[in-house]
């Protein structure tokens, strides 16, 4: 989703003491451990000429924002005027320009290379950014229960649309009666996606997963999927808080309450996220095409270009269902997510048009008042 940098004003800062030990190298260039590279340096040139320094957003709370700079971490109080679009608001993983002084200020956000955006949990027309500038999206799927095909397809669409590379990690394989069968089931839902079976208890798959992850990695999945436990296995420490699932229904508790960014010992950074109760899609056309590439390819073979894949003659999609190559459930999921995505996108577009019209009316009204005042001045 396209992103335009916008001014961000932050007043006041409180030094952090828990993100790094005193031995960490956060001198000039120390941000490379957090993903700073030559491309970012080039895009930051104008800000550096203005005396600003780069910083990465580590975590965002209501009213405060934690960042890491080349000389150490800071906590800044947010003082945004008005009600900014949530998509344009600072998010964990953002790169920013920081003005140092008596009261350090975040004065701009750099353009995002990628952003994981879902429709707002409040069902409003705004979107919500879960993480920014992500290279790999790790989707945690617990094998303690039967995999949920619809949820996996939904999360994959979100991941593909972000511009990052999705990887599915099957957690808790030690609690599955048939992990091989579960892996086959998930593989049918995610063509072309790397799938790694793991167990934090036995250590299965952890080293293989560490070897394939680079850059900025974000963990996504529902509560109880084992994201924080997996994150701790990757970090090699008990940095992230974990909790047991409820015995009565197997569902997880929200032990992670905020998105947080932590450096990995082998390079790169990890973003842990709270469990997602709902994942609404918005503007995820390309993500859906990637997830349901099998249906998209079949549709090209239909006799009619506008085939609805119901009872039209020569429908390749229905023929695949009859032959058993495609399940009715998968087609129904495809249609459901398409409808949801179109509805959320249209609501967002309608809001943007309304805001544009309101701005035009405000400008017209201001001009009219100015001309009326000038006319009165001339006549007096």
TrEMBL record:
Ranges for domain CP-type G: 124-279
Matches recorded under PROSITE patterns: ENGC_GTPASE, G_CP
SUPFAM superfamilies, per the entry: P-loop containing nucleoside triphosphate hydrolases
CDD domains in the cross-refs: YjeQ_EngC
Residues that bind GTP: 171-174, 221-229
Swiss-Prot/TrEMBL keywords: Cytoplasm, GTP-binding, Hydrolase, Metal-binding, Nucleotide-binding, Ribosome biogenesis, RNA-binding, rRNA-binding, Zinc
Cofactor(s) of this protein: Zn(2+)
InterPro entries xref list: G_CP_dom, P-loop_NTPase, Ribosome_biogen_GTPase_RsgA, RsgA_GTPase_dom
Binding-site positions, Zn(2+): 302, 307, 309, 315
EC assignment: 3.6.1.-
Predominant subcellular localization, coarse grouping: cytoplasm
Subcellular locations according to the entry: Cytoplasm
Protein name: Small ribosomal subunit biogenesis GTPase RsgA
Protein's organism: Spongiactinospora rosea
């Amino acid at each position: 989703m396209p992103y335009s940098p916008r001014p961000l004003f932050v007043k006041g800062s409180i030094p952090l003491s828990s993100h790094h030990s005193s031995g960490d190298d956060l001198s000039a260039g120390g941000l490379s451990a957090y993903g700073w590279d030559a491309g970012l340096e080039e895009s930051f040139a104008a800000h550096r000429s203005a005396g600003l320094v780069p910083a990465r957003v580590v975590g965002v709370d209501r009213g405060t924002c934690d960042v890491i700079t080349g000389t150490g971490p800071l906590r800044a109080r947010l003082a945004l005027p008005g009600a900014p679009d949530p998509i344009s608001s600072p998010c964990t993983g953002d790169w920013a320009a920081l003005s140092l002084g008596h009261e350090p200020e975040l004065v701009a956000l750099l353009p995002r290379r990628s952003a994981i955006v879902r429709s707002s949990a409040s069902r409003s027309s705004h979107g919500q950014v879960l993480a920014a500038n992500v290279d790999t999206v790790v989707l945690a799927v617990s094998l303690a229960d039967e995999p949920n095909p619809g949820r996996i397809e939904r999360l994959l669409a979100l991941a593909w649309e972000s511009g990052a590379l999705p990887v599915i990690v099957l957690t808790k394989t030690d609690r599955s009666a048939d992990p091989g069968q579960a892996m086959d089931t998930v593989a049918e839902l995610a063509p072309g996606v790397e799938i790694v079976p793991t167990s934090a208890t036995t250590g299965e798959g952890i080293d293989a997963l560490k070897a394939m992850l680079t850059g900025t990695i974000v963990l996504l999945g529902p509560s109880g999927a084992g994201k924080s436990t997996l994150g701790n296995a990757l970090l090699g420490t008990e940095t992230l808080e974990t909790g047991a699932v409820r015995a009565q229904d197997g569902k997880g508790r929200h032990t992670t309450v905020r998105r947080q960014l932590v450096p990995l010992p082998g390079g790169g950074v990890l973003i842990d996220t709270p469990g997602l109760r709902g994942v609404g899609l918005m503007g995820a056309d390309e993500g859906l095409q990637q997830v349901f590439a099998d249906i998209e390819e079949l549709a090209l073979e239909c006799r009619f270009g506008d085939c609805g894949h119901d009872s039209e003659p020569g429908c390749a999609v229905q023929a695949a269902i009859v032959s058993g190559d495609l399940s009715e459930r998968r087609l129904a999921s495809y249609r459901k997510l398409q409808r949801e995505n179109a509805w959320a996108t249209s609501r967002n577009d309608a809001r943007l048009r309304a805001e544009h019209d309101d701005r035009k009316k405000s400008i017209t009204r201001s001009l009219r008042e100015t001309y009326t005042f000038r006319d009165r001045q001339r006549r007096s």
